[in-house]
Amino acid sequence: MFFVGDLDNAGVNRSPSAYLFNPPDERARYPRDVDTLMILLKFVDATSQKSIGAFTWFATHGTSMSKDNTLVSGDNKGAAARFFEDWFTSTSTNSTTFNTQDDISVLINKASEIKATGGQPCGQTSSQGFKVRKNDGGSRFVGAFCQSNVGDVSPNVLGAFCIDTGLPCDFNHSSCNGNDQLCIGRGPGYPDEIKSTKIIGERQFHKAVELFTSAKEQLTGKIDYRHVYLNFTNIKVTLAGNKTAKTCPAALGPGFAAGTTDGPGAFGFQQGDTKINEFWKRVRDFLKKPSDYQVDCQKPKPVLLSTGEMFFPYAWAPAIVPIQILRIGKLVILSVPGEFTTMSGRRLRESVKQTLITNGNGEFDNDTHVVIAGLTNTYSQYIATPEEYKQQRYEGASTLYGPHTLSAYIQEFNKLAESMAKGRKIVPKGPSPPDLSSVQLKLLPDPSGDSPPPGVKFGNMKHDVSIPKSGSFQKGDKPSAVFWSPNPRYDLLTEGTYAVVEMLQGEKWIPAYDDDDFSLFFKWNIDNGSSYGLASLEWEVPDSASNGVYRFRHFGSSKKTIGSTTEYFTGASSAFAVS
Ligand SMILES: *[C@@H]1O[C@H](CO)[C@@H](O)[C@H](O)[C@H]1NC(C)=O
Ligand SMILES: *[C@@H]1O[C@H](CO)[C@@H](O)[C@H](O)[C@H]1NC(C)=O
Ligand SMILES: *[C@@H]1O[C@H](CO)[C@@H](O)[C@H](O)[C@H]1NC(C)=O
Ligand SMILES: *[C@@H]1O[C@H](CO)[C@@H](O)[C@H](O)[C@H]1NC(C)=O
Ligand SMILES: *[C@@H]1O[C@H](CO)[C@@H](O)[C@H](O)[C@H]1NC(C)=O
């Protein structure tokens, strides 16, 4: 089943000056410079009639967390997915709420008797048993928050401001007196970016719930697909008026190096730069002097990095990229290997829809929904319209295959759409992309071996939970505990968890929050005094937490030296009361 609706406060255009380069009559057809449509596809088990999942597509960048964040995070899409899956699980079972009616003083007394366990050995997969939401068939509901034509859409919806003056940045360059590093986008939780992530996640989650509960219309009709690989470095494109042009080998302009208001770049570049100074030209030519053909082909982009002409130790940019159309009845999904800007996405969707209607013999009509699935199958950076390309902001400067990149996508997608509409089966599969998986460079060395300080075991406490004067924590408080802990990269504990908040139920400890939960933070640091590793677990007691007795549990793994076997451990803090 599927349903569509509008979500108007989860994205803004971060390159509005480039959007204004698009023709006025085209812009006049749309209320805003970003798409607000969210499309939801709901999956229902045919036998049991139970919902088993939902996909949504909505265009907004996962950049609520800035580049200063060092925690592993799914950003606003990940937050929305977790909120949605938790919502579905709690509305469908009702059994996950803990109801402890005990008197507060009883809780405080009980908590004070339970001390930290100290570090103990455990199995490689032990932590998987402590996941709150396991992938073991219990609650299998999947809430996926997919990307769409996100190229110029920022979740930092309050706009971009200069951090020195607080004034809006330069409109055309997103800089402050020529310095792009001072111009930063603000999320709705500004200055708290974790709060911004949560709010943008919640907005997508709330809209998804609304669409999910309204989705009654069953998708019927054909299931079909077309897929092809294309060498995008020299596609011949037929433009309006029968003129022809070509795409180019990949290249990046200086606007790419400038970054965006979601994360500025470095070295003094600005978005919208159409010139490169002599110094950077010399640096560029040292790496790879772009060919005359490339310089001409990419105009008006000045070539800063001719990645399509750089092959050491392997190609710096993809040449062969896949495009794909999937059809479920009247829903048509376009899988694009990059980030289409808002207007690029509109042009592609509308053109493909027209091609389907024209060639479909009544099978497609105005009711056909075309959705762009962004950043799929491979990644080839951005796709701006030829008009936006003229301004060479970040998105235009990152449009790899030259000014006619979008026109080439539209042309090639229309070939697939025509084949699908006419029911022609086979499209040639195209050239195969090279498999580089065995030659990938890895710049991050493995951890070199870890031991705890003398007389201590990994999983022992460095700082146990410090109990407030009142004896218990309240909603919104942040209890924390610090464990001696090796580098977490020995084993990423996939399908498991580094951190758990457990709740005492009778005589048993039950996991209540894990490290995938928005309220629980797992931070690893080197102890400044001793240079041994420390894991800090911090829990922001959520409003929904029940009164009760809780404790922290930590999982980790270590190797004594690079060659030795991996050892696994766990440890729990002292207990504390929440009232
Ligand atoms: C931005 O650039 C355009 C030309 O591309 C110019 O017309 C406009 O005045 C500039 N706006 C500002 C605020 O500088
Ligand atoms: C793509 O096409 C170009 C131009 O025809 C060719 O030189 C290049 O080798 C092709 N790339 C790959 C990866 O096949
Ligand atoms: C474009 O070229 C094709 C074939 O070369 C021709 O059939 C068509 O009439 C031309 N269209 C225009 C608008 O010139
Ligand atoms: C096609 O559908 C759109 C909305 O999806 C609507 O605005 C438009 O009027 C429809 N056009 C026709 C010709 O029915
Ligand atoms: C070590 O010192 C830095 C800088 O003072 C501080 O930010 C960091 O939190 C400290 N690490 C630990 C584990 O205390």
Automatic annotation (TrEMBL):
Keywords of the record: Endoplasmic reticulum, Glycoprotein, Golgi apparatus, Hydrolase, Lipid metabolism, Metal-binding, Secreted, Signal, Sphingolipid metabolism, Zinc
Active site: residue positions: S154 (nucleophile)
InterPro entries given in the database record: Ceramidase_alk, NCDase_C_sf, NEUT/ALK_ceramidase_C, NEUT/ALK_ceramidase_N
A GO molecular function held by the record: metal ion binding
Domain Neutral/alkaline non-lysosomal ceramidase C-terminal: 413-578
Domain of life: Eukaryota
Gene3D superfamilies associated with the record: Neutral/alkaline non-lysosomal ceramidase, C-terminal domain (2.60.40.2300)
Keyword ATP-binding: no
GO process annotations (BP): cellular response to oxidative stress; ceramide catabolic process; long-chain fatty acid biosynthetic process; sphingosine biosynthetic process
Main location per the UniProt record: endoplasmic reticulum
Family: Belongs to the neutral ceramidase family.
Record protein name field: Neutral ceramidase
